[in-house]
Design brief:
Protein name: Nonsense-mediated mRNA decay protein 5
Low-confidence stretches: none
Largest sheet: none
Helix content: 55-70%
Organism: Kickxella alabastrina
Strand content: under 5%
Structural class: mainly alpha
Order of helices and strands: HHHHHHHHHHHHHHHHHH
């Protein structure tokens, strides 16, 4: 039903929601199966594995997201033991000439990476995927960055998100090679610097949901993770110095000066109104600058720009704004809750600016 070209979208959406709930409740070993939610038979499991990638390819965007969530559940229980050919399928999709097939391959890649992103016992799976598939992913990302097409931006966004998730709890050996860092670093910089036109009078946080801004955010998150977790010698725990010390030196000497200049140019563009940054991106930029304060060679690069950063980037964010005034007058209780709610601290641009100011001091 989901893959049918004749059925209306509403019917497909209903089928996809039912299918997602069925998979989430009953794909595991059946321990949660009930009379209302009986276990899924082996034949149905096999048919699902054989057809789900094709269904993702044929589905509209909203349904793709439902199906990829199902795919993640299936991979959690079936990969690699019951679905060893899955990586072969992804490889075929990533090398396809059809952009929608490539996009399907990227979404499937992201799901399998997410299954093992925090695993410390099965890092070899992520390492092997990084070695075998990510060279092609980097080429896709580099090609799509130059396009303004919405699908291309979705592909760039998923590529960077897959990279970020692959370095969550470890840095694959393939990513530690100088040529790999240069290739991915170039793609990150091109995406961060990509000019995007916007209307100053209407732009708001809703714009952050557009694929181009999501691609920018995940490029910045990837750079921040590389530097904060593996590339900053001042932040490396002693137990990781032997493992990532050489990479940290490589990153600091060959990549950090360039990326810091890119971040500073983005700040300049934002403060002069030529670049729009979402709250989350402002937070991420401030976080990288905070990490630079703590490392000797990075601090030397950052120090000449501190006065401008404090005056034009930090100070305006900490000031009591017109929107703050409106909220205070309209609903002072909500204003106070907004200011002190610890759940709002994650990704908060104001908090990141405060922390940067403290680190500078």
């Amino acid at each position: 039903m989901i893959s049918s070209a004749e059925l209306p979208l509403g019917t497909k959406q209903a089928a996809s929601i039912y299918f997602k709930n069925r998979v989430r409740r009953s794909w595991s070993t059946g321990q949660r199966a009930t009379e209302q939610h009986p276990p899924i038979g082996n034949n149905d499991r096999s048919v699902t594995r054989d057809n789900i990638l094709g269904a993702i390819y044929a589905a509209p965007q909203a349904i793709k997201l439902q199906l990829t969530e199902c795919l993640g559940v299936i991979l959690k229980y079936d990969f690699p033991e019951k679905w060893p050919q899955f990586i072969v399928h992804i490889k075929e999709l990533l090398h396809a000439q059809d952009a929608q097939k490539v996009y399907t391959g990227l979404m499937a890649l992201l799901e399998v990476i997410k299954v093992y992103r925090f695993s410390t016992t099965k890092r070899e799976i992520v390492d092997e995927i990084a070695k075998e598939l990510f060279p092609q992913v980097q080429k896709i990302a580099d090609d799509t960055v130059n396009s303004d097409d919405e699908l291309a931006m979705r592909m760039a966004w998923v590529s960077f998100k897959a990279y970020y998730n692959s370095i969550q709890s470890g840095l694959p050996l393939a990513f530690q090679e100088p040529a790999n860092l240069v290739a991915w670093g170039t793609s990150f910089i091109k995406m961060i610097e990509k000019p995007v036109s916007f209307d100053k009078d209407t732009v708001d946080e809703e714009n952050a949901k557009e694929p181009v801004y999501k691609a920018k955010k995940w490029a910045i998150r990837s750079v921040n993770r590389l530097y904060g977790r593996y590339g900053n010698s001042a932040l490396l725990p002693s137990s990781s110095t032997k493992q990532f010390g050489a990479f940290a030196k490589l990153f600091t000497v060959n990549f950090l000066p360039q990326i810091l200049q890119v971040y500073l140019k983005q700040i300049e563009g934002y403060t002069t109104g030529r670049v729009w940054m979402s709250l989350r991106v402002r937070s991420l930029v401030a976080q990288l600058l905070s990490d630079c304060v703590k490392e000797k060679s990075a601090w030397k690069l950052l120090k000449p720009h501190v006065e401008g950063i404090v005056s034009h980037f930090i100070f305006p964010q900490l000031c009591f704004s017109e929107s703050d005034q409106e909220l205070w007058e309209d609903n002072p209780v909500e204003y106070v809750q907004k200011r002190v709610d610890p759940l709002d601290d994650f990704g908060s641009a104001n908090l990141a600016a405060s922390n940067l100011l403290i680190d500078l001091a």
